Design the sequence.
């Protein structure tokens, strides 16, 4: 329910306005050297307030690792962690105690639990994803030992799309601009669009593309836990995500089989590869050793900085005028979250694969 | 690994060329009256050989329910079932013992397990989905008792798309044509396209749209098991599926928040609803009581009825000329599988929801 | 619910009076050569009607493996199996439709599910354990490849106890008598006692002792899934089991620490062992490489071949006179079930252990 | 691995010598009023240093609940908590860095993970059970709403056993003495024995008996997750536990069926009960509405306050003289842990039972 993964398993807790959020990472193998600076950088990437195109909320996002690491090395026992909630203006939200914000989780939480913590969205706050960064970054540190790297970037904002294939992009440029788009010109266009939208108190959607490189063949399970199925669950579990596709994805609908199949070839070292990669690195639910790539689409967030109509928990109509600190576009901050979720899926699959043969 | 669901849980087994495939349905509540005719119809809908636009393989697909039902009513104990494999021409596949078909699971199974059952794709055969129909149809029978219904249809084949919103369609017309498209004119166009593609020994992709009606508010879990995340896993676990989106889906990227939010309103009976349903019936990962709708895209299947280049398991280049019985377009037969997977997700969520409040 | 194990996972279904029972073994590694004769022998050992001290029911107990094995070798995909129910005299049980047999599951099933299949105890029948033999025997076949063997035997019937330590016993003698006690003299005493009890229409309890040899150090999880905890669950899940202990077990209550600790020593090959084995091969929840040994106590079964008082499902008092075929002592037939459950726990732990280190 | 339970699910983390231990409680239903004083009392009961017959270690054991509770009521979202480690004398343990204490987890952790945190036993420390008290006490608070109560007490220390049936005891007297034995005279005898053993630097074992009252019929799953199987796993997962039995338990071996069966009777209110309760409140794996009772045996702890022989991690013989603060008998402090584990099993079963019928 609040856990993710079968072997490498993250369990999270926490609301945006309690004393802290945090979680437990279970199944981390013993012997991984932990790079705390890398973890801090990862947390910074998700953090609000990085630029004026994301929310100005000043969350501390400092992680305290409480267990499972001894003298800098993982011990194989669970890693508990907390992220204190520093900047809580609960009063900002008092007006929302009996009001359901449209397209938020207020109404559905009320229907599910018969009650809710209305402050800042409670458990539904995007702040929850900070815990995912911890789980994902530590997974990524383990994956690096196997030569596996994961990179995501903003590939679309509004109708401005980066159509160049990922193989033509310089991933080092991703963090060179606040949009996290590796193409500098597109990045400028996207940034301009976000500012224009923000100026109107409105928000806008977009797409994140993610690439996993160095993943060995053989990961994933044949039926319900196909690698793409696990990735799809992971991505659709991110706040505001509305869709996922991999390889040729939705474009597959209009393709012929003769143009979609990936012909095999033998490399000079004797290994078998494919000439094209329409499969997105996964065939029959199992990785084939090529790059894995997929897209995640995010809706424009529902918090508008303008007056809107809504209802109270008694169904009465009312007005709402959010004045807080909100992202006009969540896509740039979703980039590290997509990477984190992908890292957990891949590490979990890698560990599970070890049980597959006698 | 070969199980799906937390409370209502289907575990499947079986290859296309063993004596039988089958499974176990665990967590079916006691007291559901089983309609065997409805189950037989459901199996027929997935079955090959229904028309000349799908594979002519003559699979029996007769299900034997072996337990968990007493005098026509479920007892709460697990329902085991088998589906015997009747029409097995193993010899058809002997040539493939050492050959990897492109964009199939042959190579990846070999890399995962160090071996494989090469006959008919073994476990990766789409025949595996017959077991899902059993799990899904029995789930659907339970859901009907709660007034929940699930309908899927073909909404795109190649570049022929049915753009009309689902609310304008007559779901009774879905099965009136072999394409399973509720719009008769579009259905004819799609059918013509499939025949043309088939004539060239080629295949083509498409999209299935699915609608869940009558689902109460409150289903789904807030974080990793958001209702859309469970649905996404379910759909991406279907053979040949390449993507999933719900509500406004991928179109969300280009939307403004001001056009995407669903404004609340109070119905005459006092219940709260939304004026629009861009959210696709799910907000914050939890159903809101509106219709749930989503899309699943399927690639053109990789088995072409023409000569193609590929490699052996030693990496040597070879030619392959499939002559078997294959679908030029899997989308019509994917329709009942999408419904089945959705039914299992919804019933599982419904049962889990009962544990949520004191 | 009807599944056992995390990686090597058995899911079972079936009542004593349906067409068949069976199950699915998931997580069996690829590459295990299956010995069908060994499986048949294992089924024979559990089977009723082996001698006149166990029930004369003539169950076929022939297993059909339906998947997951190709050319005699496991493929890594799930192994489905069924065991047809051959000898079903449902009419024997019609009288019990509205009667609750004392100390059976009739009343509790009715309270749990609001209904029940009253024939032969339905799902609560000991026949369900036939499926466990399949799961356990195949696990044992995999374990043999790692040099791990598991042997259980009857160590007590009524007040006749075999007090000799297991290290003094000849395990080859276990199956030389119907009681499955490796000490021939004790076996005779036990057999006489069972016959005497049977002559009175009564039943009697006993104890099974089990030893796992060749188990490497490192198996088991530190906290909730301690190896002894998993074994305890496994054993208490067997019908009629009332208790479990391992190592010095219940005798530990009266021991001093100074006599209970196992002093370490270094063997000539440099490996570390213990001089004694009060720990029963498990320390801190993890195997230490010494023999694992434990006991399971079984109650006298509740079906007496004499007239007894009981109530109907309306609470009215009534008489019951069982005349069917029942075991006067389940312990001899419990021996292979204890072995089967132990084998599944050990193989599961062995596979899970592979994920523990980087 | 570090989680327990299917619906009500506790995940724990933490070593005795890190900054904190803690955990996450998932699946707590919304609407439970949390009694913090009751939680503090529960923590006090497990805490070391309560009397001179238990370890004098001064652990703070103050729990911080970090989420999942709003205005004193559970919200249905996960409850994260930490218990800071206050009194860490890591230096006490430096000598043990390369030494394996006999009958501890030092050697087995090393074999499992290839490394270990040697300070205070790391994850294997009994301090880990503090987290279980949090999970168990909050479960108990929920159970009280259903009229279910759980009481455990010390029923044996060394060879001093309290043979009186639990129905003759005054549970209010349990905490009136440091041994937690409700019979004052037996308690004095036990206390004297513990002091005598302690004076010799030795330790002693014992037995805890636990009773669950008010449990409705119908809890538990028929096969692998029988209620007694779940309880057995729960109890054997407690440090130093060596065995478990329920109802007539190990004494069943010597019983006849005719004396063991529990004859049904109808109470004046029409409900069906049993005249005796040899079944210990569970039949066929499912609660029958009578009191559930069981025993857990604990070994004498392995830390002796005297010089003993052992080996280093290189296998060399060495001497060890523990001088820390250790329990001469863990049984009194095990009492609340047994209750906590039982509470979690019962609440989990109660919630799961809600999914059983249509």
Sequence:
């Amino acid at each position: 329910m609040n856990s993710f993964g079968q072997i490498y398993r993250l369990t999270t807790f926490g609301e945006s306005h309690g004393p802290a959020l945090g979680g437990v990472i279970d199944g981390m193998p013993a012997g991984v050297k932990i790079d705390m600076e890398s973890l801090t950088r990862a947390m910074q990437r998700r953090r609000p307030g990085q630029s004026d195109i994301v929310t100005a909320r000043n969350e501390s996002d400092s992680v305290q690792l409480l267990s499972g690491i001894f003298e800098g090395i993982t011990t194989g026992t669970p890693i508990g962690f907390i992220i204190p909630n520093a900047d809580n203006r609960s009063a900002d939200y008092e007006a929302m105690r009996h009001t359901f914000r449209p397209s938020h989780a207020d109404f559905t939480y009320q229907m599910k639990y018969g009650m809710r913590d209305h402050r800042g969205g409670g458990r539904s706050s995007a702040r929850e994803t900070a815990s995912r960064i911890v789980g994902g970054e530590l997974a990524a540190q383990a994956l690096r030992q196997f030569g596996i790297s994961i990179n995501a970037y903003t590939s679309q904002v509004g109708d401005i799309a980066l159509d160049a294939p990922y193989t033509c992009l310089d991933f080092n440029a991703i963090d060179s601009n606040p949009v996290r788009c590796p193409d500098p010109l597109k990045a400028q266009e996207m940034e301009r669009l976000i500012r224009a939208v923000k100026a109107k108190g409105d928000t806008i959607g977009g797409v994140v593309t993610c690439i996993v490189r160095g993943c060995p063949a053989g990961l994933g399970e044949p039926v319900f836990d196909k690698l793409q199925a696990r990735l799809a669950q992971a991505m659709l579990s991110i706040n505001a995500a509305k869709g996922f596709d991999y390889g040729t994805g939705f474009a597959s609908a209009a393709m012929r089989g003769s143009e979609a199949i990936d012909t095999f070839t033998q490399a000079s070292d004797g290994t078998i590869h494919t000439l094209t990669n329409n499969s997105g690195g996964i065939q029959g639910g199992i990785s084939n050793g090529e790059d894995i790539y997929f897209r995640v689409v995010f809706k424009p967030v529902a918090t508008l900085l303008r007056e809107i109509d809504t209802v109270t928990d008694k169904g009465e109509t009312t007005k709402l005028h959010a004045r807080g600190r909100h992202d006009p576009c969540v896509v740039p901050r979703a980039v590290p979250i997509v990477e984190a979720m992908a890292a957990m899926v891949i590490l979990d699959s890698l560990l599970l694969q070890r049980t597959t043969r006698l």
The mean pLDDT of chain D is 94.
